[in-house]
Amino acid sequence: MALTTSPLQNYLSSSLFSATGNASTTANKPPRISIVITNAVRMRQWAVHAAAPETGTGSVGGFEEGVLVRPNWTGETPLSRFVAALISFKPLYSLLKLGARQVFISTAEKKSIPWREMTKEILESEVYKELESIQNNSLVYPDYYLNPFHAYDEGNLTWLAAAEAEPATMSMAMRAIPDASSVDEANKIMRGNWIRAIEQHHLTYSGASAVCDILDIGCSVGVSTGYLADKFPTAKVTGLDLSPYFLAVAQYKANRGAPRKFPIRWIHANGEDTGLPAKSFDIVSISYVFHECPTRAIVNIINEAFRLLRPGGTLALTDNSPKSKKLQELSPVLFTLMKSTEPFLDEYYLTDVEETMRKAGFVNIESLLTDPRHMTTTATVPQ
């Protein structure tokens, strides 16, 4: 995509900053949304444990499941249809989108995440010079990827979305672990449990199979990719994403970070059809991607992961858990805002991911809550 103005100019002209640096959207601000969040019972068992039996409710991975199969604000429930009707009303949708954006930024900054400062730093940098070496100009984007996501009209195909991805990820960690004293502590719990789930599954079901090659599908700006590379320092790690802007930020930050023995490789490609050789990876990780995909894309990506993994290889999926008590009990304001920025959220919650994995040929499928909001599902390619 050609740029007629600099990313920073686009950012400033979008009126996200007022003269005093406070978040704003237009001259006529949307109504202030008041959100009351009750204090949850503090969770003490942060370590990953074996999954509890599927019957009944209770604690899985140390975190509490809700009483429903999925939140009643998804699928074909009356509440879900009512929210969908609200969102389909364009004037209200515009207000919801702006309100969601306000909530994203203000919530992050209340948690001491310098959202606007981090965004401005990226947009004032030389990051756009990375685009030419990353972008695959022959890539045809799937139709679903051209939808607005996360209150961005151009979805993930914009510098603003790429510049804000890291603070948004930090904010996600703080929402997942609300009792954490810092982002670092929240990430140690959220990312630590996820990494341990992958490691434990691979050790259990792949035996002495070494981890030599890792693929991170939907790597965004490389946060999850970096964690994988840190955990498996002798492996060659590849980050793959549909957004060249996200990848440009990932490469820019990686080039300015501590040098690695095996630098991360970044690829601009479609996770449904990567073009990479079959049986070329020991671990394929897909983190926080599927809730942004229609069912057909989820199926295609899982099938592609099966093709890419070597016998004994491990697939690890991490995303919102339909059984999360936290997500099932979201306030009406929060789940309405969430659905207004996630066009395929219902399809994700209605997709049986485990059954999709079985149909693709995976075995040893295990799912557990690795934090109060997110589920990690691991599986093996038969040897």
UniProtKB/TrEMBL annotation:
InterPro entries per UniProt: Methyltransf_25 (IPR041698), Methyltransf_Superfamily (IPR050508), SAM-dependent_MTases_sf (IPR029063)
Domain Methyltransferase: 214-313
Protein name from the UniProt record: Methyltransferase domain-containing protein
